[in-house]
Amino acid sequence: MSTKIDRAYYDIGRLDTLAAGDTPLHRLDPRAKLLTTMVFIFCVVSCGRYEITRLLPFFLYPAVLIGLGNLPLGYLLKKLLLVSPFVLFIGIFNPWLDRATMLQLGPLALSGGWISFFSLLLRFTLTIGAALLLIATTGFTAICMTLEKLGAPKIFTVQLLLLYRYLFILIEEAIRMMRAHALRSFSPRGRISFRVFPQMLGNLLLRTLDRAQRIHMAMLSRAFNGEIKIVRKFRFGSREVLFLGGFGGLFIVLRFTDVIELLGRLVLGTVTK
Amino acid sequence: MSHHIVEVRELKFHYPDLTQALGGISFRISHGESVAVVGANGAGKSTLLQHLNGYLTPSEGQVRIGDYQLTRNTVREVRRTVGMVFQDPDDQLFMSTVGDDVAFGPLNLGLTSEEVTARVDKALATVGVSHLKERPPHRLSAGQKRRVAIASVLSMSPDILVMDEPSAGLDPRARTQLIELLKSFKHTKIIATHDLDMVLDLCERTIVMHDGLVRADGSTMEIFENEELLAASCLEKPLRMQGCPVCRGKG
Prior knowledge:
The structure holds 2 protein chains of 2 kinds.
Chain A: H1 4-19, H2 24-27, H3 30-45, H4 60-69, H5 73-91, H6 94-97, E1 101-105, E2 108-111, H7 112-138, H8 140-149, H9 154-184, H10 196-221, H11 238-256, H12 259-272
Antiparallel strand pairs in A: 1-2
Helix pairs in contact in A: 1-7, 1-9, 3-7, 3-11, 4-7, 5-7, 7-8, 8-9
Chain B: E1 6-14, E2 20-29, E3 34-39, H1 45-52, E4 60-65, E5 68-69, H2 75-81, E6 82-85, H3 89-92, H4 98-108, H5 113-127, H6 142-154, E7 160-164, H7 172-183, E8 188-192, H8 196-202, E9 205-210, E10 213-219, H9 220-225, H10 227-232, H11 245-250
Parallel strand pairs in B: 3-8, 3-9, 6-7, 7-8
Antiparallel strand pairs in B: 1-2, 1-4, 4-5, 9-10
C-alpha cells in the first residue's frame, strides 16, 4: 500500500531521472539554459496586467523544450496543478476589486478583474512551467552551480545543494516513521492523531540535528575549513550562443510586438477589404 | 622521522554530562600495521576513533600522530594524514554527486583542478566505482555507498586509515569484496568492528576494549583463543572458530 508520502518521494525522484536524460537539449551548457529561462521569465512578467494575446506566443518555448527534451507533458501539467493554489489565492480577488467592464465579447461583458486574473494565470503557467522545464532538462545540482558561477552568494547555493541532497534522506526517515506508526495504530487509513504528530515531528527534528552533527564531523575529517569548493567543467560554445541568442531575441521581440494582434489585423484587414 | 606512528598515552575522556567514556588508554601502532579495535557496544570504540583525527579532545592524556601531538594547531595536518570512514556512509556522502564527494577532500587541501581530477579518478578506480562518478549518492546501493565513502577518504592520500564498522550492513559478496579491497591497501589500518571474522582476515593485531579501558592488546589469534578474556569483554569467538554447526548437531 503506497501512501501519499511514498508517491511524493518517487515523484521527486522522477524529476531527477528526467534531468539525467540524454538529448541535445540536456547536453547544452546549463548557463545557456538558465539565462534563456531568466530572459523568458523577465519578458513574460514584465507584460502589462491586462495582456492576454501578447502572452500566448510565449507558449512556443515550453512546447519546444518539451519536444526537444522528450519530457512527459502529463507529469509536468500535474506538477503545475499542484502549485496552482498559490496563484489562485493571489488572483481570486481581482474580479471583485476591478469591476469596470473592459471587454465586450458579444453578450458577455468581461471586467478588468477577470482579464487580469486570466493574464495572471497565463503568466503563472509560463513562468513556473519554464522553471520546471529548466530543472527537468538541467538537474538541480547543475543549476545551483550555475547560479554560483553567475554570481549568486556561495552560501545560498551550498544550502540549496545540501538541502537537495538530504531531502531524500529526510523523506526516507519520515516514511520509516510513518510506516512504524501505521503498523501499530488502528485508526482507519492510518491517520496520525493530533497528539502523536507533533511528537513524531519533534523526533524527526532531533534525528536531523544528530545527523547534521555527524555530517559536520565528516566534513571536518576531510579538512573542511568553512568554504565548500566545487569543480565543474562547463563549455559555452556555438550551440549555446545560438540557443541563448535565438530564443532570447525571440522573447524580446514577442514582448514588444503583440504578434497575435498583428496577425489578427493582417487577416481582418484582408477580409474586410 | 616518526613515519606515521599512532600513539595514545593515558587517554581519558568524559562527556559533558560527566559520563566516563574512556578511562585511560595507551597503545602504539607502527607504520603499516593493521589493527582491529573490538569490544561490546558502548565499550568506547567509536569514541576512541574520534580522538584519532581530532574531532574529540581528550580530557586527559595525549594523542600523537606521526610527528605531531594532536592539538588545536596541528589538527589540520593530522587530518591530512588520518582518513576516517564512518559507520553510516550517508553521513559521509554529503555532496550532490559521487565525483563531488570524492573531490571534496583534495579541494580543501588546496590542490589545483587538474590534480584534484586526477586524484578523484584514481580513488574511484581503486575502489572500482569509476562508472558512478556522476551519480547522486541517494541512488547507490549500500555496498556502492561504502566504496564511495572509502574513495572519498582515499583521494586525500592519507597514511592512516581509520574505519568504524566498515562491513556493517553489507551482503556477503559486498563484504568479501570489501575485505579484498582492504587487504590490498598498504596504509596503516585501524578498524573498529564487530565482524570478528573480518578481523581474522585483515588484522594481525587486536585491541580489546571493555568499559572504556583496554583489556588486551596483542596478536589476533592469541586473543581469539583466550575464551576467558573474550567472555569478560562480552565477546565471542569468530564464527569460523566456533566449530562446525553440522558436526556439533550430530553429537
